[in-house]
Structure formats: structure tokens, C-alpha cells
């Protein structure tokens, strides 16, 4: 924690609504899966190089978990206001101008995440359903052949839908904040 920052700056890092608070809570719990990923990766190294008995499941499981957590990390970054921004410009402008930049950011993010959610829906639908509509999860094609590709595409779709709602809620809050200062 930066000791030179003001309390108002720490308020920006706090969840702004119930959805953000839930994402932070879920994200903190899911972060423990990184430890599990390290443990199974260590297990694989041990089995492969010490006992000459490699596994067929560790690499795909670790990749799936890492990819899934990376996607959820985007929601977490948005919920805690830790997303990427051009601070060189952002820090040079007045707080009022920052609010307008936030509105612009949220509008563009809403459009982007909405379009990406639609695109991910088509990918997930193809990974979960046959062309004639029967449920069939896309698998990896490996010897183990888990349905991780389909599951990851489903997670991407769900997270992009949640991100779209997050952008909408943040946009509404930012517009309300601008209106309060106008009154």
C-alpha cells in the first residue's frame, strides 16, 4: 500500500457496487487455485524427472486453471479499479475531466465487452453444441481428452457478460456522480 496516497485514492480501489464486491470475494477465493496449480505442476515435475512416470492430466489442467483465472482476473481488475489506463494523461487532468474520461472509458468498454460477449457466445455455442443442436462438449483431442476447451469458452462467455454488466453499472454510477456535481 502506498503510504503517500490519500484516503480518497484508496476509495477508488474499493468495490463500487454489490457486483464488484461479489467479484472481489469470489476472485480472492479462486486465487487459491493458483496454489493448486503450482502443487500439481510440482507433482508433474517430480513424477516425470524423479520417478520417470509423467502424467497425462497435469499440463492440460494447469493450463485450463491458469486461463480461467486470467479471464476472471479481468473482472477483478475492473471491480478494484486496477485496470490499465494511460496515467500520464489521466493524472494530468482535473478530477472533473477524469470523470468525463471515465464516462468515455465505460462507454467504450461497454461496447467492446458487449461485442466480445456476442463473439464468445458464438464460440461457446459451437464448443457446447453440435450443428444440429445436441449437447457435445468440445474436447482437447489429447490422450486424456478433457472438455477443457468447451469449459474455458463457457467461462469466457460468462465473464464477458458479467464484464458488460460491470461496465454498465460503472457508467451509471459515473453519470450519477457527474449529475450530483452539476446540481
In short:
This protein has 183 residues and is mainly alpha-helical. Helices cover 73% and strands 0% of the residues. The chain has helices at residues 7-13, 18-30, 32-50, 58-79, 87-90, 95-128, 148-182.
Structural commentary:
Its main location: membrane. It comes from Photobacterium halotolerans. Keywords: Cell inner membrane, Cell membrane, Membrane, Transmembrane, Transmembrane helix, Transport. The chain crosses the membrane at residues 21-42, 62-79, 100-121, 150-173. There is one protein chain. The mean pLDDT is 90. The longest helix is centred in the C-terminal third of the chain and has 35 residues, at 148-182. This protein has seven helices and no strands. By secondary structure, the chain is an all-alpha fold. The protein has one domain (14-182). Helix content is 73%, strand content 0%. The chain has helices at 7-13, 18-30, 32-50, 58-79, 87-90, 95-128, 148-182. The radius of gyration is 21 Å and the shape is globular.
List keywords for this structure.
TRAP transporter small permease protein, TRAP_DctQ, mainly alpha, 73% helix, single chain, cell membrane, 183 residues
Amino acid at each position: 500500500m502506498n503510504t503517500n496516497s490519500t484516503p480518497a485514492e484508496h476509495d477508488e480501489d474499493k468495490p463500487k457496487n454489490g457486483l464488484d464486491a461479489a467479484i472481489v470475494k469470489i476472485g480472492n477465493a479462486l486465487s487459491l487455485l493458483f496454489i493448486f496449480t503450482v502443487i500439481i505442476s510440482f507433482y508433474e515435475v517430480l513424477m516425470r524427472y524423479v520417478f520417470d512416470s509423467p502424467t497425462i492430466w497435469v499440463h492440460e489442467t494447469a493450463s485450463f486453471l491458469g486461463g480461467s483465472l486470467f479471464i476472471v482476473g479481468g473482472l477483478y481488475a475492473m471491480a478494484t479499479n486496477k485496470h490499465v489506463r494511460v496515467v500520464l494523461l489521466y493524472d494530468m487532468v482535473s478530477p472533473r475531466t477524469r470523470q468525463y474520461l471515465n464516462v468515455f472509458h465505460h462507454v467504450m468498454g461497454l461496447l467492446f465487452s458487449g461485442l466480445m460477449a456476442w463473439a464468445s457466445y458464438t464460440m461457446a455455442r459451437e464448443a457446447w453444441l453440435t450443428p444440429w443442436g445436441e449437447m457435445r462438449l468440445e474436447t482437447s483431442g489429447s490422450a486424456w481428452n478433457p472438455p477443457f476447451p468447451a469449459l474455458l469458452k463457457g467461462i469466457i462467455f460468462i465473464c464477458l457478460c458479467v464484464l458488460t454488466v460491470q461496465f454498465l453499472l460503472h457508467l451509471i454510477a459515473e453519470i450519477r456522480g457527474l449529475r450530483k456535481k452539476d446540481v
